[in-house]
Design brief:
Elements (H helix, E strand, L loop, with lengths): L1 H14 L5 E7 L2 E3 L3 E9 L2 E2 L2 H10 L12 E8 L8 E3 L4 E4 L7 E11 L10 E9 L1
Parallel strand pairs: 2-9, 4-5
Antiparallel strand pairs: 1-3, 3-7, 5-6, 5-8, 8-9
């Protein structure tokens, strides 16, 4: 019985679509508040596309997915230090330009990049990566 349950579990696992992954790199990693840097985002098992592109596909009848279309397509949001704040960037390109908000304290910070569905819902389980940056005077 246990072997049958195990084989069923493996079968379900093997049939599940791959879960997306993300990696991020910031250049330069040291900036002043108010300056910009480039965020390089690499994904696997996920297609980055503009929310405007999704809207156009729906108007043309080519994207019928509920709640944002294909579950492995979307864009990313970039946060500074906390997911509890508004994102400082929403994009689908790589590299993309991020402006560090004026008033950001000097010292170590984290850029958190999280994948989102076309309708801006966060992918569950969360798919995110972090890049360390330093803000100077």
């Amino acid at each position: 019985m246990w072997c049958r349950a195990l084989s069923m579990g493996l079968l379900l696992w093997a049939c599940s679509p791959p879960h997306p992954t993300i990696a991020v790199r910031a250049e330069p990693s040291t900036v002043r508040a108010g300056e910009s840097l480039q965020v390089h985002v690499t994904v696997s098992d996920f297609t980055l596309r503009s929310p405007a592109q999704t809207h156009a596909l729906r108007l043309e009848g080519g994207d019928h997915g509920e709640g944002g279309g294909d579950p492995n397509q979307g864009h990313y949001h970039v946060y500074l230090d906390s997911l509890e704040t508004n994102p400082i960037l929403q994009d689908h390109r790589s590299p993309a330009t991020v402006v560090i908000p004026i008033g950001t304290s000097t010292g170590a910070h984290a850029l958190i990049v999280r994948l989102n569905h076309d309708d801006h819902r966060t992918i569950v389980p969360h798919v995110q990566a972090t890049a360390a940056i330093t803000v100077t005077r």
